[in-house]
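From the shared-data thread, chain only:
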Amino acid sequence: MTSAFNPLRATAGLPGQVFNIAHRGARAFAPENTLAAFVKAQTFGCQMFELDVHRSRDGELIVHHDDRLTRCTDVAVKFPKREPYFVSDFTFAELRSLDAGSWYLRELALPADRRQPFLQSLSDAEIAAFVSTADRAQYQSGTVKLPTLRETLELAMATGMMVNIEIKTLPRMYPGLAEDTVTLVQAMGMERQVLISSFDHEQLVIVRQLSQVIATGALTSDRIARPAEYLRLIDADAYNPGCYDDYDSLGFGSVTGQLDARGITAVRAAGRGVNVWTCNDPDQMRQLIAAGVTGLITDFPNRVRDVLAA
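Structure, as tokens:
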């Protein structure tokens, strides 16, 4: 391991370092996985934002979360009868024509209990504080587009923020996605500013074969036996377990409702990081920070900021 070359690899072993990581950008307050959401993350003091990468039909690396485009764009209006609307079925030019902003305002207009689950805890006070009139005009304008990975990394370079790139190979199994992502990161000189994660841990092995500098994180919604040993096996720098709803593997949704910190403790003792997704509850944030996590991936970076400040 060459952890000394990369702050993201090196800080995995430092006590007291907790990254406020904006999940798909500050997606509680802006359309997720857009440049607007990543810019918004900076306003909360986030050191890092997280994003997801797919590939267009003609090979462009596209930032988007879902395999399909229907939830966060107007694809069904612009391209009727193109089901099932996979990202990979559309060219970059077609993807660029989509409106990736207006859907967010339609969600805000709904009663809280009818919104997408991650927005149901969004309070009126938070909306008033963090979604301005200018923001609403931008999101409604039709100018908010799906960004390319290059454009997003350029924004990160300009703002000095770090980036967690999630490789979305399951279930679409894009050939060469990890390789092309690493090539781009290297070409832009951003190996020390990026952490690459995936639920498909084979992609992390590929990243490590191509770069001894880029940090990697093993995403999981399952409990891993001996996670510290597993990370050492694949030379990953961080364990990224879920604590969100049905994806909770840390005990918050258990019969006892208590955090099981044994995996966190073991990984931290081995000098590697723990970045938990997707933590939106302040009490859970406090428990995870006390347990020694190195990062909180959150839809609500304002809440992480306030917990850390306290």
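The radius of gyration is 19 Å.
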